[in-house]
């Protein structure tokens, strides 16, 4: 039977130690414990300590039930070393007292303490933070490989869901560096490179990237003059791409010969929802080619052909294509050359088409007769909801007719009618109020011409928003009246000053087309000293201001005439070149 003295025992030092982030009581076995208190130090210094080496006390087993009688006196215990036999009885007594203070606890095998076990492990870095850093590094590496300087603004965009990089002139090489960085992208869904000067080579690089990257759905490469070469690469891409839903190629320097590639996009791609082709050079022949593709496409929802040169058989074919198309929801053909015949066909197409919701045909120089044919189809349509007509030849009376046509129709669903900056009159506003009480209809219009029908005098009322003082001097200029003539006619007592009431009576007698309210506003402006009267000097100041305004207006009209003349010459050149091609 093995004695208790041979079993390993573990004791507590009674002290707490700091390990990691936690405090713990240190437990050591008797075989590794080294007494380092003052008493132990004093014994070791006096040479009366316990034997060292293999038989030292630090390596001897100690039990909780030590029997004082079991301590063998020196020289009597068999098998003990001679050091024990020579120890004095007093030393044995001191040792027994020291050991009795050590409170042994449970026995176990000490395997050590893992200092890192108490340290809270850091959470793994989120994937959404890792990917932007990878994309940024890929962009920096590609710039280094191509020998260009990275764009700081673009570097900041790498952590976003979409890259918006407008007007930064990165050029074709910069576009290739970006394309390389986006090859393995799996989170960026939109790419906007408007007016970055990427040209055809940059467009080719972007197209090659999009053939591999199947995550980007919105692409804007407008105002980059990619031309035929760049469009060919985009057309090839779209033939197999099933992800891109919006494509903006406005301002790409496209002409009639490029219409074949655009038609291929509409024929071969069934996922594209929005195609923007504004500010290009597509004219008669290109419009005719596009029309066939539009008629057979039933997936495109938005088509923007504004600011092109559509006219003749091109605009006519596009108007007719709406009779067969069942996919478009919005068509924008503003700032083109639609004419009377186009309006006739467009009216018939709108009547038959039940899916088109918005039509923008503003700034096409449509006149009264053409607008009449268009409105015949609009009033019978049960699909069109938004109609934009601003910038056409619409007078206040014609605006009244168009509004009446919509109001009297039982099938028309127009809820937004946009006249742009075209003027309307007070009768128009009255009719609009009546219509809005029975149906939802919002109308956009320009200035309101107010007419004074309360008095039976010659001349229509002028716009209340205009300067009444200007209108007075304009009236005088048209009738060759001088300021001195006006003052002599108004001033009956020769004081060269007239009261407000005298001035008003004189204006009514002279049949100046101003309302009483406008006369009050004008007198407030003329009476600069606030004495309630208008004198000759104040009238002269007003006349000088009128002359300055009239001169500026004439200069603007002259510049406008020159601009119109230039446009006419450009139209002649375009028509001449088209005739030469045909």
UniProtKB/TrEMBL annotation:
One of its GO terms (molecular function) is calcium ion binding. The gene is LOC111124502. Pfam families: EF-hand_7, LRR_6. Keywords: Calcium. This is Leucine-rich repeat-containing protein 74B-like isoform X2. SUPFAM superfamilies: EF-hand, RNI-like. Residues 37-100 are annotated as: Disordered. It comes from the Eukaryota. CDD domains: EFh. InterPro entries: EF-hand-dom_pair, EF_Hand_1_Ca_BS, EF_hand_dom, Leu-rich_rpt, LRR-containing, LRR_dom_sf. Residues 490-513, 514-549 form the EF-hand domain. Signal peptide: none annotated.
């Amino acid at each position: 039977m093995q004695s208790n003295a041979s079993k390993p025992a573990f004791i507590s030092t009674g002290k707490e130690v700091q390990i990691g982030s936690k405090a713990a009581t240190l437990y050591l076995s008797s075989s590794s414990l080294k007494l380092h208190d003052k008493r132990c130090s004093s014994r070791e210094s006096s040479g009366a300590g316990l034997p060292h080496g293999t038989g030292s006390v630090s390596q001897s087993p100690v039990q909780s039930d030590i029997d004082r009688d079991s301590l063998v006196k020196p020289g009597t215990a068999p098998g003990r070393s001679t050091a024990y036999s020579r120890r004095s009885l007093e030393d044995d007594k001191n040792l027994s007292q020291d050991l009795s203070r050590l409170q042994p606890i449970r026995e176990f095998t000490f395997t050590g303490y893992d200092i890192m076990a108490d340290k809270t492990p850091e959470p793994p870095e989120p994937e959404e933070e890792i990917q932007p850093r990878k994309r940024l590094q890929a962009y920096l590496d590609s710039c280094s490989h191509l020998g260009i300087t990275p764009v700081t603004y673009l570097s900041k965009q790498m952590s976003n869901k979409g890259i918006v990089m407008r007007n930064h002139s990165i050029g074709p090489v910069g576009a290739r560096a970006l394309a390389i960085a986006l090859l393995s992208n799996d989170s960026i869904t939109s790419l906007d490179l408007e007016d970055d000067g990427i040209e055809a080579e940059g467009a080719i690089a972007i197209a090659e990237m999009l053939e591999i990257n199947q995550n980007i759905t919105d692409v804007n490469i407008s105002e980059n003059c990619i031309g035929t070469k760049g469009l060919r690469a985009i057309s090839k891409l779209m033939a197999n791409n099933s992800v891109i839903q919006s494509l903006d190629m406005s301002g790409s320097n496209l002409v009639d010969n490029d219409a074949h590639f655009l038609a291929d996009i509409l024929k071969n791609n069934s996922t594209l929802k929005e195609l923007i082709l504004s500010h290009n050079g597509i004219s008669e022949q290109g419009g005719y080619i596009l029309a066939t593709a539009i008629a057979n496409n039933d997936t495109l929802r938005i088509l923007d052909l504004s600011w092109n040169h559509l006219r003749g058989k091109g605009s006519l074919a596009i108007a007719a294509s709406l009779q067969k198309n069942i996919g478009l929801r919005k068509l924008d053909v503003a700032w083109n050359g639609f004419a009377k015949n186009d309006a006739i066909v467009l009216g018939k197409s709108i009547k038959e088409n039940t899916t088109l919701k918005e039509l923008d045909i503003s700034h096409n120089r449509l006149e009264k007769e053409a607008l009449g044919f268009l409105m015949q189809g609009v009033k019978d349509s049960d699909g069109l909801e938004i109609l934009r007509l601003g910038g056409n030849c619409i007078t206040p009376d014609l605006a009244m007719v168009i509004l009446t046509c919509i109001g009297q129709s039982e099938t028309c669903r127009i809820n937004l009618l946009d006249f742009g900056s075209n003027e309307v009159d007070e009768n128009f506003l009255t009719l609009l109020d009546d219509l809005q009480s029975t149906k939802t209809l919002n109308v956009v219009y320009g200035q309101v011409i107010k007419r004074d029908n309360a008095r039976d005098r010659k001349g229509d009322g002028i716009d209340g928003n205009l300067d009444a003082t200007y209108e007075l001097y304009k009236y005088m200029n048209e009738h060759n009246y001088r300021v001195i003539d006006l003052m002599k006619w108004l001033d009956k007592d020769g004081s060269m000053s007239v009261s407000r009431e005298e001035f008003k009576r004189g204006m009514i007698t002279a049949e100046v087309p101003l309302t009483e309210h406008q006369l009050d506003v004008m007198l407030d402006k003329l009476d600069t000293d606030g004495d309630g009267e208008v004198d000759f000097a104040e009238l002269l100041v007003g006349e000088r201001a009128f002359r300055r305004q009239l001169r500026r207006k004439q200069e603007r009209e002259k510049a406008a005439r020159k601009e119109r003349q230039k446009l006419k010459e450009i139209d002649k050149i375009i028509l001449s070149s088209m005739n030469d091609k045909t």
